Amino acid sequence: MIVAVSERVFMGAKDNMSSCIRVHPANPQRRLLEPVLDVLRSGGLMVFPTDTCYALGCMVGAREAQERLRRIRQLDLQHDLSLLFSGISQLAEYAKLDDRAFALLRKALPGPYTFILPATKDVPRRLADPKKRSIGVRIPAHPICELLLTELGEPLMTSTLQLPDAELPLTDPEEICALLGNQVDTVILAEPGRAKCSTVIDLLQWPPQLRRKGAGDPLALGIEA
Prior knowledge:
By secondary structure, this protein is an alpha/beta fold. The protein has helices at 30-41, 63-73, 88-91, 99-108, 143-152, 173-180; strands at residues 3-5, 8-11, 18-22, 46-49, 54-59, 82-84, 113-118, 134-138, 156-160, 186-189, 199-202, 209-212. The protein has one domain: DHBP synthase (Alpha-Beta Complex), CATH 3.90.870.10. Helices cover 24% and strands 24% of the residues. A twelve-stranded mixed sheet has the order 1-2-3-10-4-5-9-6-8-7-11-12, with helices on both faces.
């Protein structure tokens, strides 16, 4: 059962209670997201909407939250998580960009694309592909993501909210709250999510290679599907 209290919804047992917070998808109010920011800064795990699917997310240094994320999705350590950034200048601190890659990112982002890029030497080894030293990066075009990333001043580590053995990601906010309200620390409820994930483009080589076709149109970037 979901019980509305002011602008929040509370789920779960008293000893393991998390909050589901309703936020306007196009005009999120900062005061409503302040509890979410507190959760993230304290190392917590959240569910939040993006310009594609709902996602699980936490701060880069939140190891326990990352472990919970992997348990929820049943992902091993070889499965890469993506990093969400507020802009290309922040992204460039974590990924190496040559002129061609920079121009492509300027054209595509913000938007429903994930790019695989070489990691900089400052990226902790546990965050990058252990063999290629690569990372997946995104700049989502979504007001809630933009507000969170701007306020935090740091990237978020994320993974699509797709449960084990499910064919598609979870899209219904109420269902997400009911299923995960006591497995994460907070859930942001907004509009229904997409069933399509981001389009993944590999920039470790040139020309770019399409790894996964999703919500973003690769042809718009001159990349054959």
